[in-house]
Amino acid sequence: METDRFKNYQEDVKQLVLNFEAMQRRGDSRYFDVDQLETIIDFYLETSDEDMLEKSVRYGEKLFPTSNEIRLRRVHLLCFKEKFREAYNLLKQLEKVEPDDTDVLYALGVVYSALEQPRKAIQYYHKAAADGYELGTIYSNIADEYVKMDQREEARNYYRKALKIKPEDERSLYELANCYEDDGMSDKWINFYTRFVNEHPYSSVGWFCLGEGYTYEHLYEKAVDAYQYAIAINADYYYAYMQLSACYQALGDNNNAVATLHDAVAHTQDKAFVYFRIGEIFRFQDNPVTANAYYQKALKEDPYYSEAWHTMSICYSSMREHSAAIEAAKKALKIDPESPKYLTTLAMIYVDSGDYPNANRMFECAIPYFADFEQGWMALADYNIMFYKYEEAIDCLTSGLPECELVVEFNKRLALCYFALGKRNLLFNAVRACVYENESGAKELLDYCPDLGNDIEVMNIIESHRQENQSKKQ
After folding, report:
1. 211-239 residue pLDDT tens
2. Domain boundary assignment for the chain
């Protein structure tokens, strides 16, 4: 335990801290000078030991009640405890005494940031930057404040300034990439990180961010190269493995996607998620047996991984192993009993197995949690359509429609129901919703309900829209 705590500290720091802790245990007092107490307090701050941080600050204030350096560390303690208003009040007192103290000015920038006053934070960060100390960190903090104000051009400018001074600053590298992504500036994104890795070829994060730029542009082969460089530099770069695997999948190279994830297992604590990802690759290759083998591996690592139980139930259902599917689905629900997705999946497994009473019961349990869960409304609509309960299906679909993103999926079902019930005007509205949503809407509609292809009025709507589109393109 002690070895871990002091791993990055010199022997004199370790001895000071141990002496302080021995004194605390004995309940006696001994003298430490100001510099020694600052070192002790900073150790607890850096190691996030709130209890000992509080005790060391209090002891420092007892020995040196007028020391501004100790009072500044009281500010750090207050910030650590997220008591920013108290920290602000103490800092304003310190500012009056030492208006040019860089540490005080920087701390005021931090506190103004925490108090959601980004302009004030920037003002004090600039004041703190006047002596040229820790400019990389200060510029990065200024960039963060511009992000809060949605002024990303200024943010990008300051992240670049920070990286010019401190190219190893990983957070600035990531945040700059986020700014480029938010503004859709993929060309500048790729150009910047290409130059950056040319200047700093051993920056694994630089290569990773370049890979992200290529991925954004769907240039997966180039992204693969960038992620491979990142891993070559830092073999423990877990996120690079995950992104590299995703790129292989996008290229249709599932063998390398799986191999990459196998490599990732040795470089993460979250092995369950990696095994789950491998399972998903096999599931979408229509290989449920192998998929379930990996879901089992995930569950061995984490028995409470509800999504692994859920997807396992889907795989068992696809293999017509309904008992195993129901058991797995129930385990997912035991972990997350209010999940509309899990409730719907179990309901549909009951439907597939022909157990309609339990399907009805499960849908009744699920409905209160549907809200904006579109797949739930559609599944219930499909269930009603299966029994020709078109009015009930319409009720389901119109309940989910107001916030619906799956416009064609909802409206093609509505079209089938209105067609079956002879509600012509409502049918035409649903047909128009399908064909106007996207170019494939008409085909999806007719594939779902082929009888509509024999309806002259419906086909006139579809043909009219097709001609309208052609005239727009000419």
Report:
1. 999 999 999 999 999 999 999 999 999 99
2. 385-474
